[in-house]
């Protein structure tokens, strides 16, 4: 090792780590750079590893985790020391919980300063161990290649998961000779190739396979259940063959969707409760019997069900104690079961009672849901936009887009509506139900599957966790369309009960509520992407068509009725509002407002109006006043939105026509009324009545239109000012970007030329034959490129 050698003949720890990752097959790395790993990211890129720079380590970690699932190779996450490592724990733990391969690499403080309160000092091995299959630290530069290969192999062996490699700052700055670096990488690669990462794949499985096939053959109500483990194992062809040859109905877990197409006639997704509640034998492949599958226990499952559990982890088999447990790779095990069944075949006919029961129940439930989906409900519930999105995604054909689903109601309803017909085309919150994964997943899918469009369907709450990564989408120009279901907060905003609205801060917004109708699409526009604000089916269809065709970063901000139920009954918000002002309706039964105190006050006022026989235009005026009073900060969306609904209702339209017909006589009637002699009290009552009658819907509408025109004019002026400033800033940014690109290119050319000169001038006299052959090949390639061959 030589720390004072000339630059042309030495390699530092950052460069060695980058080269080792490239030699091990790493093609992409995600992270946030800073002291002491900035050079490592650039060195890795120079070695052929594309580095995707994020705005937050959590999103980068979720990207690395999803990349491991989509490609089968470990996603690599790079973080700085201390707090950067802590942020990265989100991705590391998420990968391990979901059994996805990931390698997290973090810089750390100088070893000599450990325990002295150094910059961002943290015992990172202790911090990562609870969430990692392997946590190791390089104490010298020579350790780096060996540990890189070891950690990457550990991430994919057995049950996949996260691994951690710590490289202290002093190690990253140590140097060694080029020849020694190449030898260390070659030795690490040779040792890794000699090791068997998955010995369980080669064990004898005959006994378990025979038992599994026999149980399925003798079952009266068999069911095949598969999860993301089967998708990760690329078991789709084997499972599809099993289903087709045996006629057994199947049930995927959320991220198992697409292993067998959702459109397959034996899919039990729409008959889930019947399928798991009455099956007598369940073959569970690559799915754990955890909360997602109700732990495999009654009352959701039959108490007499026999489980055949196929899992790559022996610990999982031991934990669940199934009737038959088979430890092994899902694809290999199902291929062996298919071979066993082929020798003694069986198949459930379409007329089999179990198959008939499943298909009938599924068909009935699908028809019910399609009836709801067929309705164009405006303001949007969840069902209408999801149907439009589903149809647009299906129209893309193959390769199907990767769908990223995140949120509460959005993800739950989307799971039932959105269709997956190809494997590994659905990513969601996963085993932990993690929120914040959305945009990290999108970036991973875009680089792992560049031929596919990526479509994220996000709740506004889920989107908020990683929203700043829209800048990352634009920076790398990734084909990602983010659709935000904007219903003003978690679960749709304020859902507090009366006893929760007390105390000194009772007037604060609810913990679940956000700014109404937030302009999320403008975030994308701020960085140069495309933003859409949609409130109607036609607007959504147009936005989807344009953004899908462009395959550029876009955000579609879909305004959702905050009071829309998860599985909407089909009633519009118009119906619910108008019922609240109809004498025959009990107001307390209308889910019009979540603020119960305010609702009770309005209910009392409505009851008074119902008993007094106040006319329709008075009710409209009072509705306007109610919503205007709720808007002290001039956030006009709420009451204008409500007024638009009210003014277009048939009752209001009819009343306006009546008022128009009576308008020429109104002045005479007023004169007659005012000329009637009365006492002071009577005159006061008469004046109040006249004021009420004058507040017609036309006057209220005129006020609103004038106010809206004023607000729109002000908004337009501000928009023009912003656009002008944005244009000026964009021109400056483009000029700076061009200069930066030129500098980066010059730097890259210089580094490449220097590396090539090092290779051409390397002293091979002391090298082994293998090393000499390697450098000889490299020299020939370099000369061929320079000579244009």
TrEMBL record:
<comment type="function">
    <text>Catalyzes a carbon-carbon cleavage reaction; cleaves a 2-hydroxy-3-methylacyl-CoA into formyl-CoA and a 2-methyl-branched fatty aldehyde.</text>
</comment>
<keyword id="KW-0460">Magnesium</keyword>
<comment type="similarity">
    <text>Belongs to the TPP enzyme family.</text>
</comment>
<dbReference type="InterPro" id="IPR012001">
    <property type="entry name" value="Thiamin_PyroP_enz_TPP-bd_dom"/>
</dbReference>
<feature type="coiled-coil region">
    <location>
        <begin position="703"/>
        <end position="737"/>
    </location>
</feature>
<feature type="domain" description="Thiamine pyrophosphate enzyme N-terminal TPP-binding">
    <location>
        <begin position="17"/>
        <end position="126"/>
    </location>
</feature>
<dbReference type="InterPro" id="IPR045025">
    <property type="entry name" value="HACL1-like"/>
</dbReference>
<keyword id="KW-0786">Thiamine pyrophosphate</keyword>
<feature type="domain" description="No apical meristem-associated C-terminal">
    <location>
        <begin position="635"/>
        <end position="782"/>
    </location>
</feature>
<dbReference type="GO" id="GO:0030976">
    <property type="term" value="F:thiamine pyrophosphate binding"/>
</dbReference>
<dbReference type="InterPro" id="IPR029035">
    <property type="entry name" value="DHS-like_NAD/FAD-binding_dom"/>
</dbReference>
<dbReference type="InterPro" id="IPR029061">
    <property type="entry name" value="THDP-binding"/>
</dbReference>
<dbReference type="GO" id="GO:0000287">
    <property type="term" value="F:magnesium ion binding"/>
</dbReference>
<feature type="domain" description="Thiamine pyrophosphate enzyme TPP-binding">
    <location>
        <begin position="407"/>
        <end position="558"/>
    </location>
</feature>
<dbReference type="InterPro" id="IPR029466">
    <property type="entry name" value="NAM-associated_C"/>
</dbReference>
<feature type="domain" description="Thiamine pyrophosphate enzyme central">
    <location>
        <begin position="209"/>
        <end position="335"/>
    </location>
</feature>
<keyword id="KW-0175">Coiled coil</keyword>
<feature type="compositionally biased region" description="Basic and acidic residues">
    <location>
        <begin position="681"/>
        <end position="691"/>
    </location>
</feature>
<dbReference type="Pfam" id="PF14303">
    <property type="entry name" value="NAM-associated"/>
</dbReference>
<dbReference type="GO" id="GO:0106359">
    <property type="term" value="F:2-hydroxyacyl-CoA lyase activity"/>
</dbReference>
<feature type="compositionally biased region" description="Low complexity">
    <location>
        <begin position="671"/>
        <end position="680"/>
    </location>
</feature>
<dbReference type="Pfam" id="PF02776">
    <property type="entry name" value="TPP_enzyme_N"/>
</dbReference>
<protein>
    <recommendedName>
        <fullName>2-hydroxyacyl-CoA lyase</fullName>
        <ecNumber>4.1.2.63</ecNumber>
    </recommendedName>
</protein>
<dbReference type="Pfam" id="PF02775">
    <property type="entry name" value="TPP_enzyme_C"/>
</dbReference>
<comment type="subunit">
    <text>Homotetramer.</text>
</comment>
<dbReference type="InterPro" id="IPR011766">
    <property type="entry name" value="TPP_enzyme_TPP-bd"/>
</dbReference>
<dbReference type="InterPro" id="IPR012000">
    <property type="entry name" value="Thiamin_PyroP_enz_cen_dom"/>
</dbReference>
<dbReference type="GO" id="GO:0005777">
    <property type="term" value="C:peroxisome"/>
</dbReference>
<keyword id="KW-0456">Lyase</keyword>
<feature type="region of interest" description="Disordered">
    <location>
        <begin position="655"/>
        <end position="691"/>
    </location>
</feature>
<dbReference type="GO" id="GO:0001561">
    <property type="term" value="P:fatty acid alpha-oxidation"/>
</dbReference>
<dbReference type="InterPro" id="IPR000399">
    <property type="entry name" value="TPP-bd_CS"/>
</dbReference>
<keyword id="KW-0479">Metal-binding</keyword>
<dbReference type="Pfam" id="PF00205">
    <property type="entry name" value="TPP_enzyme_M"/>
</dbReference>
């Amino acid at each position: 090792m030589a720390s004072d050698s000339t630059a042309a003949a030495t390699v530092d720890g950052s460069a060695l780590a980058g080269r080792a990752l490239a030699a091990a097959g790493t093609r992409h790395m995600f992270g946030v750079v800073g002291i002491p790993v900035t050079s490592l990211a650039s060195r890795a890129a120079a070695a052929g590893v594309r580095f995707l720079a994020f705005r937050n380590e959590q999103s980068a970690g979720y990207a690395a985790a999803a990349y491991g699932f989509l490609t089968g190779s470990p996603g690599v996450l790079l973080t700085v020391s201390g707090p950067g490592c802590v942020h990265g724990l989100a991705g590391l733990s998420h990968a391990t919980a979901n059994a996805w391969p990931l390698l997290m690499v973090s810089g750390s403080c100088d070893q000599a300063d450990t325990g002295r309160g150094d910059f961002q000092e943290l015992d990172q091995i202790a911090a990562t161990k609870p969430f990692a299959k392997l946590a190791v630290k390089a104490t010298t530069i020579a350790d780096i290649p060996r540990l890189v290969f070891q950690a990457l192999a550990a991430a994919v062996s057995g049950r996949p998961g996260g691994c951690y490699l710590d490289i202290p700052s002093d190690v990253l700055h140590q140097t060694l000779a080029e020849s020694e670096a190449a030898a260390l990488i070659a030795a690490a690669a040779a040792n890794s190739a000699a090791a068997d990462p998955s010995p369980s794949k080669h064990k004898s499985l005959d006994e378990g396979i025979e038992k599994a096939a026999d149980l399925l053959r003798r079952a009266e109500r068999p069911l095949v259940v598969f999860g993301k483990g089967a998708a990760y194992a690329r078991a789709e062809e084997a499972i599809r063959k099993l289903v087709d040859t045996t006629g057994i109905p199947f049930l995927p877990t959320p991220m198992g969707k697409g292993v067998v197409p959702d459109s397959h006639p034996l899919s039990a997704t729409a008959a889930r409760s019947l399928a798991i509640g009455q099956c007598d034998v369940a073959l569970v492949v690559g799915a754990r019997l955890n909360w997602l599958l109700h732990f495999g226990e009654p009352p959701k499952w039959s108490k007499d069900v026999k489980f055949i559990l196929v899992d790559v982890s022996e610990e999982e088999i031991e934990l669940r104690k199934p009737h038959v447990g088979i430890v092994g790779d899902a694809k290999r095990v199902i291929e062996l079961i298919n071979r066993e069944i082929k020798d003694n075949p069986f198949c459930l006919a379409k007329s089999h009672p179990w198959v008939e029961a499943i298909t009938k129940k599924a068909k009935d439930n699908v028809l019910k849901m399609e009836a709801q989906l067929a309705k164009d409900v405006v303001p949007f519930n969840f069902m209408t936009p999801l149907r439009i999105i589903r149809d647009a995604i299906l129209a893309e054909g193959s390769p199907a887009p990767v769908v990223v689903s995140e949120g509460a109601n959005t993800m739950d309803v989307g799971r039932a509506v959105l269709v997956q017909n190809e494997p590994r085309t659905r990513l969601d919150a996963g085993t932990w139900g993690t929120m914040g994964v959305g945009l990290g997943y999108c970036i991973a899918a875009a680089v792992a599957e560049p031929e596919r469009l990526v479509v994220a369907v996000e709740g506004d709450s889920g989107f908020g966790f990683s929203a700043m990564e829209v800048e990352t989408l634009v920076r790398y120009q990734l084909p990602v369309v983010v659709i935000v279901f904007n219903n003003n907060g978690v679960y749709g905003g304020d859902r507090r009960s009366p006893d929760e609205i007390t105390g000194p801060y009772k007037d604060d917004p609810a913990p679940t509520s956000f700014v109404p109708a937030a302009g999320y699409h403008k975030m994308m526009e701020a960085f140069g992407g495309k933003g859409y604000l949609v409130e109607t089916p036609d607007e959504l269809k147009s936005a989807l068509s344009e953004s899908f065709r462009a395959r550029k970063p876009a955000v579609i901000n879909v305004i959702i009725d905050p009071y829309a139920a998860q599985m909407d009954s089909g009633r519009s918000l118009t119906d619910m509002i108008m019922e609240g002002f109809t004498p025959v309706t009990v107001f307390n039964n209308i889910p019009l407002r979540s603020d119960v105190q305010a609702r009770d006050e309005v209910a009392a006022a409505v009851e008074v109006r119902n008993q007094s026989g106040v006319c329709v235009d008075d009710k409209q005026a009072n509705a306007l006043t109610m919503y205007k009073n709720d808007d002290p900060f001039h956030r006009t969306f709420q009451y204008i939105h409500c007024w638009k609904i009210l003014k277009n209702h048939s009752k209001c339209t009819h009343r306006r026509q009546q008022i128009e017909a009576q308008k020429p006589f109104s002045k005479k009637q007023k004169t007659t009324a005012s000329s009637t002699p009365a006492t002071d009290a009577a005159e006061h009552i008469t004046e109040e009545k006249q004021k009420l009658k004058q507040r017609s819907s036309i006057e209220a509408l005129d006020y609103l239109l004038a106010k809206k025109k004023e607000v729109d004019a002000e908004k337009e002026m501000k928009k023009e000012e912003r656009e002008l400033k944005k244009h000026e800033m964009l021109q400056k940014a483009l000029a700076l970007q061009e200069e930066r690109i030129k500098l980066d290119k010059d730097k890259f050319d210089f580094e490449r030329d220097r590396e090539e000169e090092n290779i051409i001038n390397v002293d091979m006299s002391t090298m082994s034959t293998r090393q000499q052959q390697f450098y000889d090949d490299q020299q020939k390639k370099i000369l061929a490129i320079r000579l244009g061959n």
